[in-house]
C-alpha cells in the first residue's frame, strides 16, 4: 500500500476533530436518536462521499440533511424528484434574451455545496444520468459548456423502499457512486415519545446552530488523509471485499446462492477512506479493526446484489455482510 504519513500527534487530532462533537450536539437539537445517520452524514463531510438515505416516510431523512446544511456554513438546495422532472430542472438551461439576441446560462439547483435529492427513485433515467455526471465528475454540461460545481459538493439522496408505482430503481452504476447507504429505521418508544414532545407544536424547531465552516472541513480532510492505515488492515479490507465476490474462499460457500454480484473495487477505496474518517471522529491518528467493522455495512450494503432466492428467503445484504464480518480473519 502507498506510504501514509503518520505524524498526526494526539494533540493535533484532538484539536482538529473538536468540531465533530459540536456538530453532533447541534444535530441533536432537532434530531432524536439516529446516531448512525448522523455518523454517516459526518463521514460524508470528512470524505466528500455522497450518501443514499433509505427509509419509510416520516423518519426525518430530509430534516437531517437540512439540519446538516444549517450546521455547516455552506450553500444548500433541495429538489423534490418527480416523474416529470427534466435534466434542465436539475442542472440548468440556456435562456434566450430576445432584446440582446443572445443566450445566457441559468444555473439549476445542482450548483450548491449540499444537494438534497428527495425521493431520487422517482426521477426518470435522463435525470438520473445528469445527476450521475455531477456526482462522478463534479461538473455539469449546459449548452456545450462544462461548468464546475462548488467544492465541497455532496449529494444526499433519499428514497422510499416501500413504493413501487411511479418509481425508477437506481441502476447499479449509480448506486456504486454513493459512498454510503444509510438505512433509517423506526425510533424506539422512548425516542418516539421525545419526538412527539418536541414536534407536536404549531412551530416546532427545525433548524440548528451553525458550528463549522468549509475551511475547517477542508483542513480536517487533509488530516484524515494523514491518519495511519496499517498494511495488515489494508489487506483485511481487501479480503473482506474479495469475500463478497467469492464467499467459498473464506468458508462461506453456503452464501453463494444468495449472491448475484459482490462489491466493486470502490468498496475497498471507501472502506479505507471512511475508516480513516471514523478514526478522526474518535480522535485517533490511526485506524483499528473496529473502525472498519463500524462502517462496513454502510459501505457495502448497496454494492452487494442479492439473488431472487435471497429475496424469497428474506436474506438481506446486511445479513450477508454480518456473516462476512464474523468470518473474515481480523489482523
What are the key terms here?
5-stranded parallel sheet, Helicase, Ruva Protein, domain 3, two-stranded parallel ribbon, 14 helices, Rossmann fold, globular, 331 residues, 17% strand, 2 domains, alpha/beta
Can I get a quick summary?
The protein is α/β, with parallel strands linked by helices and 331 residues long.
What general outline do the C-alpha atoms trace?
Answer: globular
Rg measurement, Å: 21 Å
CATH homologous superfamily annotation of the largest domain: P-loop containing nucleotide triphosphate hydrolases
In the CATH hierarchy, the architecture of the largest domain is 3-Layer(aba) Sandwich
List SSEs in N-to-C order. Answer: HHHEHEEHEEEHEEEHEHEHHEHHEHH
SS summary, helix count: 14
Count the beta strands.
13
**Order of the strands making up the biggest sheet:** 3-6-9-1-10
Indicate the low-confidence ranges by residue numbers. 1-5
Quaternary state of the chains: single chain
CATH topology of the largest domain: Rossmann fold
Q: According to CATH, what is the class of the largest domain?
A: Alpha Beta
**Whole-number count of domains:** 2
Average of pLDDT: 86
Give the SSE map.
Blueprint: H1 10-16, H2 18-27, H3 35-47, E1 50-54, H4 61-71, E2 72-73, E3 76-80, H5 87-91, E4 92-97, E5 102-107, E6 114-118, H6 125-137, E7 139-142, E8 145-148, E9 154-159, H7 172-175, E10 178-183, H8 189-199, E11 212-213, H9 214-226, H10 231-245, E12 259-261, H11 265-281, H12 289-300, E13 305-306, H13 308-312, H14 317-327
Parallel strand pairs: 1-9, 1-10, 2-11, 3-6, 6-9
Antiparallel strand pairs: 4-5, 7-8, 12-13
Amino acid at each position: 500500500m502507498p506510504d501514509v504519513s503518520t505524524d498526526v500527534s494526539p494533540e493535533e487530532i484532538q484539536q482538529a476533530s473538536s468540531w465533530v462533537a459540536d456538530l453532533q450536539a447541534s444535530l441533536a437539537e432537532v434530531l432524536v436518536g439516529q446516531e448512525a445517520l448522523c455518523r454517516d452524514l459526518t463521514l460524508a463531510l470528512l470524505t466528500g462521499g455522497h450518501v443514499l438515505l433509505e427509509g419509510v416516510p416520516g423518519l426525518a431523512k430530509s430534516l437531517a440533511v437540512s439540519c446538516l446544511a444549517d450546521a455547516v456554513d455552506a450553500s444548500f438546495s433541495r429538489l423534490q424528484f418527480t416523474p416529470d422532472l427534466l435534466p434542465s430542472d436539475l442542472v440548468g438551461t440556456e435562456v434566450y434574451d430576445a432584446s440582446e439576441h443572445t443566450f445566457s446560462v441559468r444555473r439549476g439547483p445542482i450548483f450548491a455545496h449540499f444537494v438534497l435529492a428527495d425521493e431520487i427513485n422517482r426521477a426518470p433515467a435522463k435525470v438520473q444520468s445528469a445527476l450521475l455526471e455531477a456526482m462522478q465528475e463534479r461538473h455539469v454540461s449546459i449548452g456545450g459548456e462544462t461548468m464546475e460545481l462548488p467544492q465541497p459538493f455532496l449529494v444526499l439522496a433519499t428514497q422510499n423502499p416501500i413504493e413501487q408505482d411511479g418509481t425508477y430503481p437506481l441502476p447499479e452504476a449509480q448506486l456504486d457512486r454513493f459512498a454510503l447507504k444509510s438505512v433509517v429505521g423506526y425510533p424506539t418508544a422512548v425516542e418516539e415519545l421525545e419526538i412527539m414532545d418536541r414536534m407536536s407544536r404549531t412551530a416546532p424547531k427545525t433548524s440548528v446552530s451553525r458550528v463549522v465552516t468549509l475551511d475547517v472541513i477542508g483542513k480536517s480532510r487533509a488530516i484524515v488523509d494523514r491518519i495511519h492505515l496499517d498494511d495488515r488492515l489494508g489487506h483485511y479490507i481487501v479480503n473482506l471485499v474479495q469475500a463478497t465476490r467469492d464467499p467459498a474462499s473464506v468458508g462461506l460457500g453456503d452464501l453463494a446462492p444468495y449472491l448475484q454480484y459482490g462489491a466493486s473495487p470502490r468498496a475497498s477505496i471507501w472502506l479505507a477512506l471512511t475508516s480513516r474518517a471514523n478514526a478522526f471522529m474518535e480522535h485517533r491518528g490511526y485506524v483499528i479493526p473496529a473502525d472498519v467493522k463500524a462502517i462496513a455495512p454502510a459501505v457495502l450494503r448497496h454494492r452487494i446484489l442479492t439473488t431472487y432466492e435471497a429475496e424469497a428467503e428474506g436474506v438481506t445484504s446486511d445479513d450477508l455482510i454480518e456473516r462476512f464480518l464474523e468470518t473474515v480473519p481480523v489482523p
